[in-house]
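Why do we care about 3D structure at all? Because function follows from shape, and shape follows, mostly, from sequence. That is the central idea of this module. The next example makes it concrete: a single protein chain, its amino acid sequence, and then its structure expressed as tokens.
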Amino acid sequence: MAEWYAADGLSCRRRRSRASGTHAGPQLIAITMGETLINLVLSGLSTGGLYAVIALGFSLVAGVMRLLNLAHGEILVGSVFLMLALMNMLHLDPFIAMLGALPIVFVIAYVVQRTLLQQLLSHSAESLLVATFGLSIAGQAIFQLVFGPNAVSLDSMLGFTGVDVLGHTMRWISVVAIVFGVGLTTLTYLLLTYTTFGKSLRAAAEDVLAAQSLGVDVRHVFALCLGLGAVLTACGAVIVGIGFSVSPTSGMLWLIRAVTVVVIGGMGSVWGTLFAAILVGVAEEVGVLTFGPAYRDLVVFSILILVLVIRPSGLFAKELR
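And the structure:
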């Protein structure tokens, strides 16, 4: 994932060395190892928080609608471009632009579900895959036509300023990633567990016909589900836009990360998505520390293969019921 990073991405840096020439050899090694471990954990948590937000919407849609949305990455990329347009036109802060983009993203996803994908839900899963793949290609073409082929990012001081955590400089956008990851996961769990809408979602995920017989408007619920998934993804997009460079064709890279997290965590498992995202984030940092940036993905996909062999349903697999 090294090619996604703008500057330092969400990584943390040691602010100052606590070691000095007066330390004995073993003591110096212990201090260095401790600082490395702190840096690894902080960077892994921030990257994992971002992955959790991005994968949460994908997991929700897949768990409820049994839809593997191949246009998921384009939702993220499109949200970044939409926020950039709002920032340029109205001179907004990225997070204010995010609030303006959320209802637009929701409406687009809702309309796409009601007018296109809903018609294909009764057909084979392959038809839905082809449809979402077509939406992905169309999205890339539209982004290049409207915004050009160059990579963009969202300007924010949160991407350059930081806070000292245990002697390491942690950028504010990394802190936001952790807060968003934990906060949105918690809110999604509460929504699914304690609200009428959440119960309708779980009923539709369990049995569509039974849910309809109980008066649930499944078409409306599915459209709301895709809209909610898009909103969650757009929340991750503001972090991506500030911490990384995004191009019209980079959506597939983010889709791969979302799929990896969901497969490891378990389809439809809200908390599993968060824990798997943190696992992937830490694994990436371990890969960089051990083998170098070029092998960032080696450890991640090794874990993915291991999970598929040992527990194909995911480490925290649980249906949305």
